[in-house]
Design goal:
Elements (H helix, E strand, L loop, with lengths): L1 H7 L7 E4 L12 E4 L1 H10 L8 E4 L7 H10 L8 E4 L7 H4 L15 H5 L6 E5 L7 H15 L4 E5 L3 H14 L12 E6 L5 H4 L11 E6 L12 E6 L2 E8 L4 E8 L2 H9 L7 E5 L18 H10 L16 H6 L4 H4 L11 H6 L6 H12 L3 H11 L6
Parallel strand pairs: 1-2, 3-4, 5-12, 6-8, 6-9, 7-8, 9-12
Antiparallel strand pairs: 10-11
Helix pairs in contact: 6-7, 14-15
Enzyme class: hydrolase
Family: Belongs to the DEAD box helicase family. DEAH subfamily.
Protein name: ATP-dependent RNA helicase, putative
Length: about 400
């Protein structure tokens, strides 16, 4: 993103820069800086007023991750002049922000730019639906890609699946069906690539390059391809309508990843990938089961886990924090006496302990995280891992 913006503004990378967790190219001359929400949270811990910035833009706010929601809550308490906060999204439920007096005492102005921009930027996208919902959505996606390649005009294909295992499986089947011509690489007609959360640069660089004439590119992606990346020349989108989402299981008391239907907002984002450079087509497997919006991540996490994560970010007043979509306050207050938190998140307004900070790194509930953290000290980690694994499923056998 920083490279593209720098090119369009005719500015060097020292002026338009980026910063991610372990990498960046910022300098003293940097005027525009792209970063992840986690990096900005770290900067706020060291400089709450963000005095070196005049504008903070939070893009793709409809994703409603826990870090973006906490960021918006923190930034809502920083007074303007000179700092300005801009929240952007094409499919955002703005009522969560404009009608939330606890977040913004004065409702912020809403600028609806989508209709204006679409006249100059977004091409029309035709939505197609299956006559019936397939039992095997991955096999149906494979069949649809083959049909597009054999029957429709040139143009890149973007396929949305749920995770890395499905990405690898579909890529393997497509490459087996349309093998590369080893004797003449330039004559290759069908190139399969992929995009996942953990990008491997040498393997994904071809995704962002225009394919040669007579060659069709097929990109298999997880939901990271909805908004985080722009792939050129995508004309066809094959949407399985599925996403792997982290949800809280009240039976086992842990968070687990489950495959579910995407929201209508996410489906619209996926379809929009096909209309960037020319009129496109989006093929959906089902449209009747889609919720309007995805529930914010902060409401899908167990409350004790949320408290521990926020304490680890040095956010002490958890109950009165200005959430865009607040969790249940009674459940937050109940955490004061939770045995898994009382000695590690300390008193309600104190700092998290070193053990509590270590516990926050595990993707399980605090009571299981404590078992894992302490087992390492006693040389029992392999056994406790097995116990925790058994306790985090409804049925072992």
């Amino acid at each position: 993103m920083s490279k593209r913006v720098g090119q369009e503004m005719s500015l060097p990378c020292s002026v338009v820069s980026y910063q991610i967790r372990f990498e960046g190219n910022t300098t003293e001359d940097t005027k525009v800086k792209f970063m992840t929400d986690g990096v900005l949270l770290k900067e706020i811990q060291n400089n709450f007023l963000l005095t070196k910035y005049s504008v903070v833009i939070i893009d793709e706010a409809h994703e409603r991750s826990i870090y973006s929601d906490i960021l918006i809550g923190l930034l809502s308490r920083i007074r303007g002049n000179p700092l300005k906060l801009i929240i952007m999204s094409a499919t955002l439920r703005v009522e969560d922000f404009t009608q939330n007096s606890h977040l913004f005492k004065v409702p912020p102005p809403v600028l609806k730019a989508r209709q204006f921009l679409s006249m100059f930027w977004q091409h029309p996208v035709t939505i197609h639906f299956n006559k019936r919902t397939p039992d095997d959505y991955l096999q149906e996606a494979y069949r649809k890609v083959c049909k597009i390649h054999q029957q429709l005009p040139e143009g890149a294909i973007l396929v949305f699946v749920t995770g890395q295992q499905e990405v690898q499986s579909l890529c393997h089947k497509l490459r087996k069906r349309y093998p590369a011509k080893q004797d003449d690489p330039k004559a290759e007609e069908f190139v399969v690539s992929y995009v996942i959360d953990r990008l491997i640069f040498p393997l994904t660089v071809q995704v962002f390059q225009n394919p040669p004439p007579g060659m069709r590119l097929c990109v298999v992606a997880t939901n990271v391809g909805e908004t985080s990346l722009t792939i050129p020349n995508v004309k066809y989108v094959v949407d399985t309508g599925k996403v792997k989402m982290r949800v809280y299981d009240k039976v086992t008391g842990i968070s687990a990843f489950m495959i579910s239907w995407v929201s209508k907002a996410s489906a619209d984002q996926r379809a929009g990938r096909a209309g960037r450079t020319c009129p496109g087509h989006c093929y959906r497997q089902d449209g009747s089961r889609l919720l309007k919006f995805t529930a914010p991540e902060i409401t899908r996490r167990p409350v004790d886990d949320l408290v521990l994560q926020m304490k680890a970010m040095n956010i002490d007043k958890v109950v009165n924090f200005p959430y865009p979509s607040p969790p249940d306050k009674e459940a937050l207050k109940f955490c004061r006496s939770a045995p898994s938190l009382v000695s590690h998140a300390g008193e309600w307004s104190s700092k998290v302990t070193p053990l509590g900070r270590a516990m926050s790194c595990f993707p399980v509930s605090p009571r299981y995280a404590k078992m894992l953290a302490l087992s390492q000290q006693h040389g029992l980690l392999p056994y406790v891992v097995a116990v925790v694994a058994a306790m985090t499923v409804q049925e072992v056998f």
